[in-house]
Amino acid sequence: METSPLYRPLVEACREHGISRSVAFELARKGLLETLGIFLNQSLPETIRLQSPVSAIRGGEETVQRPELRVFTAQQDAITTQKRLISAKNIPRTSLFVQGGYGRPGLNLLDNNFDFYYIGGVRLNWSLNGFYTSRKEKQIADINKRIVDIQKDVFLLNTNASLKTQQSEIDKLQQLVTSDNDIIELRKSVKEAAQAQLDNGVISVNDFLQQVNAEDQARQALITHQIQLIQAQINYQNILGK
Fold first, then answer.
1. Chain-centre distance of CA 229, in angstroms?
2. Tell me: the pLDDT tens digits for 131-158?
3. End of a domain among 126, 150, 181?
4. Cα–Cα distance between 226 and 179 in angstroms, integer?
């Protein structure tokens, strides 16, 4: 019977020490559970039954939610705010003011007596220096925004291309799983026919065991493809940013 590559080193080591394959598989499972428990930061009992994750892929309805997109959005917002500041610093500013005092003379310069005085009005401040640089600063901001937009578009293009590739891998593995199930049914039928031939003395025990091994290898291929399918689905979700 063919041994899965995942357990082959341990099975070969156990064979050298005269340990049965069933014990080897139990030891391998125990070791994997301990490794998984380290990642989960909790102890997993040997009797635990692990379940396969449920796929939530819906094809073309998925939306990319990668954190890089939030970075691009923040950069775009920062550039927009920068352009507003450039425009704001060239806007004329007005302010009210009041100034008063007591002295001699007051506002009436012809009167040499002490007197209270005050003045008020509106002050206008307008810096003309910004007009010489604001246009160039806005052009630079527009260029930076365009660069960020291009980077975002390229990132989405690459991400969507990766999603297409991963979706093709998922479709291929799903077809392999379906094909494996059909092969298992066929191997099972052949094994049952071989069982009948063995009972009637038509074939030898060795011939019958070949059919048993062929069915077992088909089941191992199914399990391998199912694991690969789960991994491909997880990779798809990771590319999406979920």
1. 18
2. 667 778 888 999 999 999 999 999 999 9
3. 126
4. 12
